[in-house]
Amino acid sequence: MKKLLILVASLTTLALSLSQTAAAPNPLVIAHRGASAQAPENTLPAFQLAWEQGADGIEADFQLTKDGHIVCFHDKDTKRLAGRPLAVADATLEELRQFDVGSIQPQAADRALRSWNGDKYKDVRIPTIAEVFTTVPRGKKIFIEIKCGPEIIDPLLRELASSGLTHDQVVVICFDSAVLKSLKERDPKWRSGWLCSFEKRANGKPRNAPHESSKP
Fold this sequence. Notes:
By secondary structure, this protein is α/β, with parallel strands linked by helices. The protein contains 7 helices and 6 strands; from the N terminus they run αβαββαααβαβαβ. The longest helix is centred in the first third of the chain and has 17 residues, at about 1-20.
């Protein structure tokens, strides 16, 4: 919970600092992985619900598949959300689409309780970045958190170019500064933010790598 609150606060602060014209003191409301308390995280239903609830923006996690597609998924593998482990980086989009990520509620301690409102979200699939982009209304924002390495940047820029989203709507964020450096070298017009963690490793150094853990 502490880690989540820090992330939400950091995203809000980042959004406010990036806004050059906002005179109002009200903070932006950014839905972390969509409305992830009421719908499966990082899915189209979670993002649609966030917009319906009045969010100013969404935060979503993205990785590159083995066959070069960008998918919206937080963990390095599918075990927590789908019950079976498959590394995203080693899977094709077609393979990842086989998983139902709407029938398990990872927050529940008892696996028997891990279901979302009966069958409401049964058979929800992992979305692509293009599908997530289509949910973003005009004037709303998306915080794109990169969960892999710089190899995603060229495909990401192609997706952004065809998305219809403006530079004011998009912020690319990552724990890995090399990813953000690659973004700025290729297209400096897209805004970015470097995420930092207060959590430390056993050796006392900050845990600042983007894909060390599959924990939420």
